[in-house]
Amino acid sequence: MTTPTFHASDLTKTYRAGEVEVQALRGVTLDLYAGEFVVLLGASGSGKSTLLNILGGLDVPTSGEVWYRDHRLHGAGERELTQYRREHVGFVFQFYNLIPSLTAHENVALVTEIADDPMPVAAALASVGLEERCDHFPAQLSGGEQQRVAIARAIAKRPDVLLCDEPTGALDAATGVRVLAALEKVNRDYGTTTLVITHNADIARLAHRVLRMADGRIVGETRNEVRATAAELSW
Amino acid sequence: MLGRKLGRDLWRLRLSLFAVAMVGAVGVANLVMARATLESLRESREEFYGRYRFADVFAEVERAPEALARRIAHIDGVAAVDTRVLAAGRAELAGFGEPIRVMAVSLGEPDSANLNAVYLREGRLPAPGERRAAVLSDGFAQAHHLRVGSEVTLVLHGRRQRFTVMGIGTSPEHVAQMDPSAVFPDARRFAVAWLPRETLAAATDLDGAFNSVAITLQPGASEAAVLAALDRVLRRYGGRGAIGREYQRSHRYLSEELRQLDTMARTFPVVFLAVSAFILQVVLGRLVASQREQIGTLKAFGYGTWRIAAHYTGLALATGGMAALFGVAGGMLLGARMADLYREFYRLPWIDFHLSSSLLGIAVLVSLAGAVAGAALPAISAARLAPAEAMRAEAPSSRWVRRAGRRKRLPLGQSHRFILRNLQRRPIRSALTWLGLASGTAIIMMGRFQNDAIELMIDQQFRRTERHDIAVDAVQARGRAAQRELERLTGVLQVEPVRVLPAKVSFRAADYRTAVRVLDDGAQLRRTLDSDGRPIAAPLRGVLLTDYLARMIGAQPGDEILIDPLDARTPPVGLPLVGTTSEPFGAQAYVNAETFDAVFERSLQDAGWLLAVDRRRQPAVLRALDRRPYVAGIDQRGLAIRNFKDGMANTILTFTLIATSFGIVITLGVVYSAARVSLSEQSRDLASLRILGFTRSEVSYLLVGELVLLALAAVPLGFAAGHGLAALLTAGFDSDLFRIPHYIILRTHAFAGAVSLACALACGLGLRRRVDRLDLVAVLKARE
Ligand SMILES: Nc1ncnc2c1ncn2[C@@H]1O[C@H](COP(=O)(O)OP(=O)(O)OP(=O)(O)O)[C@@H](O)[C@H]1O
Ligand SMILES: [Mg+2]
After folding, report:
1. Domain extents for chain B?
2. According to a count of CB atoms within 10 Å of the terminal CB, is the N or C end of chain B lower?
3. A68 and chain B: CB distance < 8 Å anywhere?
């Protein structure tokens, strides 16, 4: 196989809150490859978000190495990490994190303005099926629609990787399916390496590869020979 | 439990509340400073007047026999009578070449009522028989470092005599120690000299006679009746019209000063306290919004509406209390400094600077009331929340969303749109911040406005109206010969006579006691100017009045003005008001010389002269004037201007510093609390943007941009408010003594604007640290 997009080895992360030390990651080693759709499963508190945040340059590991292509993310400074996020990463979070005072269009434009080679805002919204709603404010959109705007915002800059932390966590089933379909389409159309955290094992059927975490370690890996489409999911 | 919550909220908001408290403190400080100074000055003055027997009525007369005192004492309502000898003259001090004017006043004889008694700071009164002993006014003695035992030469009625300084002091009559013709005290060039009566009487040929009388009234006596009776008694002896205290020069100046202080005490604190209430409203408003859920929970648990409202009012009271504490302390410090400044101009023997308990009460009450007013809206809105509604997050106003959605898309970057939308989303808060910032700018403008206005006054009075180089007073009014003699002195380019007739100017029921200046056609050295600064000649048939005087007596051009000379020899004459003159100092009437002679059927003699002098020959001219026996006082205009500026410089600097720092406190207080509120509201958005790859600077720009935009928008409003305050002050300061013009130069605008913007920027950048510390991961864990 080709060189991995992400390469992490022996990652640990220890949070210190006063006297108490919490080991969120206890030696994670993993590779993610270009164009892969990977789902990360695991119990609450197993360290999924911690890992995703380190891969996304929002946090740094306590020890171990993590590389994005030839970018060294461990021990990188604030400035380099910001630059890395800006150029390469698209994020989607459970609570959307849209700017309430900007319309859907403007929320997306916010990112395209600082990107090197963005897609047109309208195209990004169209790819999540929201071109009609571009002049609406977040408060005027449903949760699922807001999450699709968040996806449009994440993909509009044509990121190399898309990191999604429980993107359907706050949504009902039908809405979740539409959101997942949007993610799947992005992965397919643009070849964006996609990592999705979820508590829903069913969603794992969409993935090329499924990783399982427990207690700060990766404890299992399965490969789906046949991927389901979002429409086929039932949950 | 709510008590503990109050403590936590106070601690959490400590910096914002401190900022609010500081703005309030500035208002309280202002109030305390002005009122404590006012009260202290007023009380010290009253005490001095009482203990040193300040007279109620004064009259000057050419020469009255001493025996007349008995008749005056018998006038109904008169309590005590003191006759004096007054003489204007000059002083000479070794090593000081400039002309010094002196007002010589006879000391009370042992058996006299001793009104307007001298308070001695140093030394003693001359003993009987010490004929060459003098007591000098303390301002002058201090300015020249004179002590008991120093020597001074006095030139009175052309006689040059040496005196030994026996004492240094002041009297209720000379709290403002200034020459009658001056517009400003000049301690270096004016002295009051109290001399033994025999010495002074001998020098002025007034043995067994007097030329001034001071009277105290019995309680309940009618001042007007006494004035009229006194005028009748003195008429035959060349009486110049008796006056009550309110026309006594020193008293007038001090009263005017106190009135201005009163105006200040009423104007500024209101502005500051209003601004501080505004900001408190913003800060607490935000607190309530962020605690909706807590409030709902508390109410659900059964805490009553009043308990909740009282809780937020408690925050306000704590803030108001802090404002009162700092404000009273700061006000006392500043007030003591003000009192020091006043000591230089108003030579009260003591100024007992203190804080009265009623003022303390008012200060505390006012700051608490301001704070509670600021907290009222947020507290009410918190208390009124229904528990269920409160526990839901605050929905963005649907009206705002609808309106914002309809708005056309401006060609702006999203960052600027983000800034604008945040401002629009909270229109009331944005407006309050805007107003607050504008008041900061306005206050800073006030600090420099005085300076600008005084520069203009100097220009109007000393460059455009008065254009002589040297002014000379005559010992006694003289005929034309003296003028011709002065014209022949080498170096003298031009001489114009000064002719003034003290008179009552009246229109209908209103009258005003002033002087009629008689002007020759084409007079150049003292001009009358209209409101546009163009020369306007005294008309052939009619009278010109200072515009302030015309307004004061309610006369319009065309109205017949009655001029009633105070000397009682000349009958009153009516003349039509032809025009008004604009001048910053004094209020008087102008009549053309020919007209005067015709209607009054007499000519005035020259009371003095204005000289234009070749600058290089000025010292020689001064020496020549010194030798003329008919020359009483000499004034150099250049020195008068310099003195005026020097005298004001210290005061102005102090006021500028105080106002500027007050303005800066307001601006910083407003910006800081607005910025903290914005930051706490937007931290989630800002962190989201950081996650998306916005740099720290880009995110800071959003926050700082909002502040700077508000500050920029506040600048024009600040200018308008500054002009409003200036108008208020000039109106409040307007008096017949002087008018402060409403005049603010461009540089002052620029300075005020720049300082406000710099404060906004500095404060914004100060918050950058907090932007840098935004916790990116934390915002992902929680819904808003
Ligand atoms: N800032 C922090 N300070 C202290 N401990 C933390 C912090 N962030 C995370 N942890 C701890 O690290 C561990 C891993 O947290 P993480 O958020 O990665 O779990 P997760 O797998 O994403 O869980 P969930 O599925 O509930 O989101 C947890 O035990 C958590 O309590
Ligand atoms: Mg998680």
Report:
1. 1-51+253-396, 86-205, 414-465+638-784, 492-613
2. N
3. no
